[in-house]
Structure formats: C-alpha cells, structure tokens
Design goal:
With 375 residues, the chain is α/β, with parallel strands linked by helices. The chain folds into two domains: 7-26 and 273-373, Aspartate Aminotransferase, domain 1 (Alpha-Beta Complex), CATH 3.90.1150; 55-269, Aspartate Aminotransferase, domain 2, CATH 3.40.640.10. Helix content is 41%, strand content 16%. The strands form three sheets. It has an eight-stranded mixed sheet with strand order 2-9-8-7-6-3-4-5, sandwiched between helices. Helix 8 links the parallel strand 6 (154-160) and strand 7 (188-192).
C-alpha cells in the first residue's frame, strides 16, 4: 500500500504545540466537561452519578441506544441500526471507503479538499479522478465536469460538505444533480459533513436524506465543539452497506468507549443549546475576520457561510514560498496557520477563526505585520 503523508495532519502534529497564537484549528471553541454538564437542568449531577456506577466494559459496540437515537434525529430516513459509531468522522470515512473500494475501482473525489477522501481510495488501489473546485466559482466543483468523468463502472463519489479548507457549501439543488448523475450508474456518494453550516437559511441537506446510496459521516468534533473524545458516526439508508461497515468496525475499532459514548449522547441531546452557542461564536468571529480582510490589502477571501473554517488568499506572496512563510510566521510571531500547499493549494492558508475573540484578533494583527516583514 502506497499511503502518502497526510499533509494537514502532519503540519499540525509538527507545529501546533509550539504555537502561542493558534488560529489554525477548525473546531468551534471547544467545550469543557463542566460546560457540557451544565447543559443538563441539574448541572449534570444525575449523569455523573450514573457514569460513576457504570461498568467500564466495552459497552454498546455500535453505539448506545441514547447515542444512536440522538444521531437519528439529524436525518429523515435512516434507521437507528444503520447508524454506526466511529473514531471521529475520520474513522467513519476510513470504514466507508474500505467497505466500498477495491483495487481497480473507479472513484471520483472532490479536489482539493480533505485529503483522506482522495488519497485513501487511491492507496487501496482505486483509479481516482479529481473533481476540481474553482476559486472563481466560490470554491465549488462543476457539474458538467462530473458528467464528463462519470463512468458505468464508477463505484464511489467522495465529497466534503461543507468543505475543508475553504468552507464552501454544496447546496441542496446542486446535490440533487450529483445524485441524479450517481444514480444513473449506481455509484455510492460518501459525504463528509463535519462542517455543518450554521446559517439557518442555508439550503443544506445531508446526502442520506437525498440518496438511497448515500453515506453521511459526521462527528461531534467540529460544529459540536467536542473533539477531545473522538466520537463520530457513519449513517446510510442502505442496509447491505451498513452490514459491510459492521465488518470493518470489528476489524478496526470494536467500540468508542462507555464514557465517550455517554458524553457524545449528552452533547447531541442538547444540540440546540450547543449549536446556539456555536452560532454566536461564528457570528461574532466572522465579523472580526471580515473586518480584517476588508482592511488588509494584502489578502482576499471568499467568506464561508457560517462554517467554522476559512481560506485566505495572500495576494502578493510567491505561492512556492507558502510553507516557508507559515513556518517563519510561527517562529517569529508565534502564530499558527495551515499553509495552503498542505491542501495542494499554495498561495493560501487555512484560518480557523472560531477560537476565542482575543486570540483571533491578536493572530490576525500579527499576521498583517508579518505580511509586510516577510521578504
């Protein structure tokens, strides 16, 4: 297997612990356990009493009834038994691709986006065609190019909605066209949906609500602000595919853990409160980010629509020096961003703007300073 280095994760593994000002992360400011417990009317007392008495066995292998029940509320037509817990959305994507893709299969993947969605199928021996996104189209791919790429033997189409690192959203009408194209050849669609948009006016749909061969993956890491317990899931209306995912889980993870499952179920039980908090953070911080971009002539941006990740363009930076710029920014200013070359898009950088306001404001100020100092 020829598995290439995961660019974004390798960057963070190398540099994130040395950052003083971290504006690279894509999680909406993480919750503490105290904040999670306070979502309960009794401040979490009953939850703690129960969890202290629970036996820390393997627990519910595929996810507890509480967890599956809460996840099922996010979709319209997925049975609880077709929802399988995973080690984050990354684990869910891993399972879905491994369950579907064999050497020689044809896969179409949105590109560039989350690297796992195109390099993991390729590592398994698939023939992967890149469905490219275009900056001039607000970082969206083009349907006519998908129609040209699709083949009678296409097994899988991989998308990221909303997308990493750009925050671009494929709306419901667009997805319905993708479904029509996939259905003509019986291809599956895997949609990584961890960056759920928080604009209530957004025309957003999980792929499993639109397509009988859809797979939606998600987690509580990004929009739900709890990356630390690594709980995600895969959901599909396809019974046979759900059974294939079960096989992969047995070989790869068994379960997510009693405590992690319980916390995830609690967060999803109070998703309205959690998402209201997230919406407030995004709204305030996106205003800060927008003001900075509009006042900084050396950058530009296609703004995300209340999605927790953004992608800035450096107007006068030599794209071949993008990583050099990001390393020196960290070393000289203490500010962490992710250089766009780690997403195969040099000349840009990912900014995770949903940190606390002071960190964001300080990071952007120092970034502006360094844009003028870097030679």
């Amino acid at each position: 297997m020829n598995l290439v280095q995961f660019g974004c994760e390798d960057w963070l593994n190398t540099w994130e612990k040395s950052a003083e000002i971290d504006i690279a992360q894509s999680t909406i400011a993480s919750l503490t356990l105290d904040e999670i417990l306070e979502l309960e009317p009794d401040g979490g007392d009953a939850f703690l009493v129960k969890i202290r008495k629970d036996t820390f066995s393997y627990g519910w292998i595929e996810g507890s009834p509480d967890f599956k029940g809460e996840v099922s509320k996010l979709y319209h037509g997925v049975k609880e038994e077709n929802i399988l817990s995973a080690n984050g959305a990354t684990g869910a994507n891993f399972m879905a691709v491994l369950a579907l893709v064999a050497p020689g299969d044809h896969v179409i993947a949105q590109y560039p986006t989350y690297q796992q969605l195109y390099d993991w199928p390729k590592a398994l021996g698939a023939e992967v065609d890149y469905w490219k996104v275009y900056e001039e189209d607000n970082w969206s791919p083009r349907l006519d190019e998908l129609r040209e790429m699709i083949r009678p033997d296409t097994k899988l189409i991989c998308i990221n909605n909303a997308a990493q690192p750009t925050g671009a959203l494929l709306n419901r009408d667009f997805l319905n066209e993708v479904v029509k194209i996939a259905r003509e050849v019986g291809a599956y669609i895997l949609s990584d949906e961890v960056y759920q948009p928080l604009n209530p006016e957004a025309e957003y749909s999980p792929i499993v609500d639109l397509y009988e061969r859809g797979i939606s993956t998600n987690s509580i890491s990004k929009t739900y602000s709890v990356p630390g317990i690594r709980v995600g899931w895969a959901a599909t209306p396809d019974d046979a595919l759900a059974d294939e995912l079960r096989k992969i889980r047995d070989y790869s993870m068994i379960c997510t853990g009693v405590f992690d499952d319980a916390v995830a179920a609690l967060v999803l039980k109070h998703k309205d409160k959690v998402l209201a908090r997230a919406r407030g953070i995004i709204s305030r911080n996106l205003s800060i980010l927008r003001d900075w971009v509009e006042g900084e002539p050396l950058v530009s941006m296609i703004y995300p629509d209340m999605v927790s990740v953004s992608f800035v363009k450096f107007e006068q930076l030599d794209p071949t020096r993008t990583e050099e710029f990001a390393v020196q920014l960290l070393q000289e200013k203490g500010v962490l961003i992710i250089p766009g070359n780690r997403f195969d898009m040099p000349g840009h950088a990912r900014i995770g703007y949903c940190t606390n306001e002071k960190t964001l404001q300080t990071g952007l100020k120092l970034l502006s300073e360094f844009l003028r100092e870097f030679k």
